[in-house]
Design brief:
CATH class of the largest domain: Alpha Beta
Order of helices and strands: HHHEEEEEHEHEHHHEHHEHEHEHHEH
Number of helices: 15
Strand order of the largest sheet: 7-8-9-10-11-12
Radius of gyration: 20 Å
CATH topology of the largest domain: TIM Barrel
Largest sheet: 6 strands, parallel
Shape: globular
Helix content: 40-55%
């Protein structure tokens, strides 16, 4: 089978000849190949990243830039973005007020940490609700097809929605501490904000549904250490269920980017009809072993991930890396709903030879 045919088989409930290998190499590529990191993302096919995927033989599925443009339908609502002296600033201007966020580039981690969150208190929520009522999207499927053509058999691009209401609040624009205070102190305001964001996203989804993508990703960075079952049931469950329903009606699939403690969340995602838990990271970085993850997820949820950054990077040995990969691949015997990937992105300190080992390891230990 071709590499992307293996991924397609897993999503369609078929058994491939071996576990598919998919990797997010974008962060490693930018750091190790000296490519400037712009938070706006790629705006054209990045030939160096394509060449890296060809060299490794891993399917590319995310971090290719946006396949649509978000636009305001109201001239009084606008986005202003700028980068200066390593600070990426976003300003959202509306008649109800202005919000701004600051992210600072860290050369060591090759990432932008948040110096100032967009939202400071629930007093800012009406500004976001005003914005959400006026957003629309313009698909850029020509860009999607350009990546497909460049990657060939290694292409399985995921389309992506913006953060859900809960992810917007907790994981991205307010931060955990202030979001928890808001949930406890002003639950009605939080619910109003979450519903406004989710309603906007469902409207965007209707514009995107007929596009050429097969899988849609929501990058909510869920972590069950701070986002409890009660939180999930109140703010998340109905939205994920509805997105999955609409995608399934068009023969498409839904992946949720976890990238945190997955204890508990895997079963909850399966209950919502989600097809894939992306960026799931096992012990020793988080609590569960691969076998425990599969037991919690049930046989139907696709598990995509498996290699913690602490094992992929230089702090671990090659032997530890190989054993980690084997433990993940062993779960294929319980269910073929499995993708071999990094726990999230391939970390910037991963030795190249270790990345290059993966095709041979999957061929040796991941066959059906």
């Amino acid at each position: 089978m071709k590499p992307n045919e293996r991924v397609r088989a897993v999503y369609q409930g078929r058994v491939p000849d071996r576990v598919p290998l998919i990797l997010d190499l974008s962060h490693w590529y930018k750091k190790n190949r000296g490519v400037p990191f712009d938070l706006a993302g790629f705006t054209a096919v990045e030939e160096g990243l394509v060449a890296l995927h060809r060299e490794i033989g891993a399917v590319a599925y995310c971090e290719m830039g946006s396949f649509y443009a978000l636009e305001s339908r109201d001239p009084e609502v606008r986005f202003e973005r700028s980068t200066a002296d390593g600070v990426f600033t976003t300003r959202i201007v509306t008649p109800l007020g202005t919000l701004h966020e600051e992210r600072v580039f860290n050369p060591a981690s090759y990432s932008y940490g948040i110096r100032k969150y967009l939202l400071e208190s629930p007093a800012d929520f009406p500004i976001v609700e005003h914005l959400m009522a006026r957003l629309a999207c313009r698909p850029k499927w020509e860009y999607y097809r350009a990546w497909q053509a460049a990657l060939g058999d290694l292409a399985f691009p995921y389309a992506q929605l913006p953060y859900s209401g809960s992810g917007y609040l907790m994981a991205r624009y307010m931060g955990v501490e202030e979001a928890v205070y808001a949930v406890q102190d002003q639950p009605a305001a939080v619910r109003s904000l979450v519903e406004a964001i989710n309603a906007c996203n469902l409207r965007l989804l209707e514009t995107l549904l007929d596009g050429p993508f097969e899988t849609l990703l929501i990058s909510d960075n869920y972590d069950s250490n701070v986002q409890t079952r009660e939180f999930f049931d109140t703010y998340v469950r109905d939205y994920y269920t509805e997105v999955a329903r609409r995608l399934h009606a068009r023969g498409k699939h839904l992946a949720i980017h976890v990238d945190g403690e997955s204890r508990g969340i895997l079963g909850w995602l399966a209950e919502c009809g989600v097809d894939c838990a992306d960026a799931v990271t096992p012990h020793p970085m988080f609590a569960q072993t691969p076998a425990q993850m599969r037991a919690a997820a049930g046989p139907g949820l696709i598990l995509s991930g498996g290699i913690p950054a602490t094992i992929f990077g230089r702090r671990a040995t090659d032997d530890e890396f190989v054993e980690c990969v084997k433990r993940w691949l062993d779960t294929r015997l319980e269910s073929p709903r499995l993708l071999m990937a990094a726990g999230d992105q391939v970390p910037t300190d991963a030795p190249f030879h270790r990345i290059a080992m993966l095709p041979e390891l999957v061929d040796r230990y991941g066959r059906y």
